[in-house]
Amino acid sequence: MLELTDTNNTAYLFLSAANPSIGSSLYGLPSSGGLVGLGLTYALTVTNYLNWVVRNLADLEVQMAAVKKVNSFLGTESENYEGSIDTSQVPENWPLNGEIKIQDLCVRYDPMLKPVLKHVNAFIQPGQKVGICGRTGSGKSSLSLAFFNMVDIFEGKIVIDGIDICKLPLHTLRSRLSIILQDPVLFSGSIRFNLDPEKSCTDDRLWEALEIAQLKNMVKALPGGLDAVVTEGGENFSVGQRQLFCLARAFVRKSSILIMDEATASIDMATENILQKVVMTAFADRTVVIIAHRVSSILDAEQVLVFSSGILVESDSAPNLLAQEDSLFSVLVRTHK
To answer: Which end of the chain is more exposed for a tag (fewer CB within 10 A), N or C?
Structure first.
């Protein structure tokens, strides 16, 4: 289609250049054959210049989109990284137990927008396995962002082991919790760097984490072992393997709280079973908050929180909620079978 258009444009330009000479011959006006030939030659070459102009204008438009994005970042209000509590006031082993109290929590993404979580109250005991479910847009992922203070908590609070997270410096808060996202994140470098970016663990600890995630044999077979290369975004590994690497990284960090935000959404059922088995064994003494993509993945949870339109509508163990046929959790289980 593009070649056909270019041919038509050339024909139109050539005709436009030839028309004056044809008209001058018809009306008996003097004309120079050399000037006519020169005009036709330039008419043939001007289309190349037009293509160059269009191509550069398109390239300019793409580059200006990047400038617009940077300009929007410059106008974005900066997060309060300092907090109101000094780092020295936070114990080095915080959070030690993993107790979570959610008190009258209200969350929004912007002061001009409506709240996405409304007056949520919940208590998660240390070492408890908690499942969070609800329909799309119910506020599940917003709660996971609230744990890392990445959204506007304008009312209420989240208290972890006796400390209000909104008062903590962001670096302290986010470095003490572990999360596994729906889209696994690996960095360019080595497997060792991805498991232990701060270089604080021994090789035995890293191999133990890989064995727990059932990746030890695969990594041993790679050239360099722990020093094997990880390409940009971890593209040289499958999605399931990347998710298991993220699980091993969470185990290495020794955080007492692990948040799984729809971590099984992009992996097959076999890898999901491995992930669930590892969570229930290797993280048996840690608090695990599972935001469910498949409701079946939280049927064994000790507590289930069911959200609807940003409101916590049900909170109980899975068997108790399933015993109530009219409960929203029962409806979700039936519709997802």
So the answer is: N
